[in-house]
């Protein structure tokens, strides 16, 4: 007689087969899931690689288009009135007064060739007199005359940089005044920044801070030019990240920022950044601009 606590062999066998079935089913599900996940992972990877190949192909096509456009652009010349200036143009050797008079009379509608060289050869007393008179005209000069004065003075840094160092402080102060309200006077501010770049590295904290203030203002129309100028005034300033930001927000001068990146960041980093921007670009013009910037890289 069997005890009431004993188990029937058939019942135990059925339970064992039940658990064996559930375990095998579970293993099958796990295996199928692993295979499915592997397939999906490969599918996603291949899709991403294909998209990347297509993106590279499109970028290279636009790069070739950009290069072809630049090389086949129709060249033409514009006739511009000019006057060659030298001491021989006066009855006697030019004086600071006659020099400044010539600039004022012709600088607003002529390109005065030779003025820079004449001034660079002047003795210190004549140079000093001309510099002071020209600088005094800058705040109220009409745009063409202002540009001509800044050009004449700026070129002196190339022709006689040692002498111009004596005038850095005075020249910089005038240029900083020209930057006042530059948000509403683009040409005036652009002229001032261009001249500051010619001066180069400076000890003027006022100049550095003022230019950095423009650089960091997303809404300022000269933010890109100020960024490029800032590093000329203080070579320790890292402007690469700021240039990238100006590209990302599509600042009005963002194309200049994009084309300047390779001067301040490694080419590989610039390539990945521009490629990412290209992938997100929504207009044909943006894509072509980015392709042009990619052509600046030496990869």
Question: Overview of this structure, please?
Answer:
- It is a single chain.
- With 299 residues, the chain is an all-alpha fold.
- Among the domains are: 87-165, no CATH class; 171-237, no CATH class; 239-298, no CATH class.
- It contains 14 helices and 2 strands.
- It has a two-stranded parallel ribbon.
- Helix 2 links the parallel strand 1 (82-84) and strand 2.
- Helix 7 (168-178) runs antiparallel to helix 8.
- It starts with 8 loop residues before the first helix and ends in a 5-residue tail after the last helix.
- The relative contact order is 0.07.
- The model is unreliable at 72-92 (pLDDT under 50).
- Keywords: Membrane, Transmembrane, Transmembrane helix.
- The chain crosses the membrane at residues 21-40.
- Radius of gyration, in angstroms, nearest whole number: 35 Å
In round numbers, the mean pLDDT is: 80
Helix content: 55-70%
- Report the β-strand fraction as a percent range: under 5%
Annotation field: number of helices: 14
Query: Separation of termini?
Result: 92 Å
Question: What is the number of beta strands?
Answer: 2
* Strand-pairing-aware structural class: mainly alpha
Instruction: Show unreliable segments.
Output: 72-92
What is the string of helix and strand elements? Answer: HEHEHHHHHHHHHHHH
The biggest sheet, with number of strands, parallel, antiparallel or mixed sense and barrel status, is: 2 strands, parallel
The side-by-side strand order for the widest beta sheet comes to: 1-2
Keywords: Membrane, Transmembrane, Transmembrane helix
Transmembrane segments: 21-40
